[in-house]
Predict the structure.
Amino acid sequence: MYRAPTGGAVGGSAGLAMTGADVGWWIALGVALLITGFLLLHVNRRRARRVAD
């Protein structure tokens, strides 16, 4: 049986590629989640600063 090279790491981009998942979509989702988290954190800090004053 053929085993795909993963570079010693379980999972990783080679593992995603073997499942047929498009790695670009995973990267885009990660970036979108990071941006959303940053915006929520910024709004929450601004709200807390306004309440403290």
In short: The chain is about 70% helix and 0% strand. The chain has a mean pLDDT of 77.
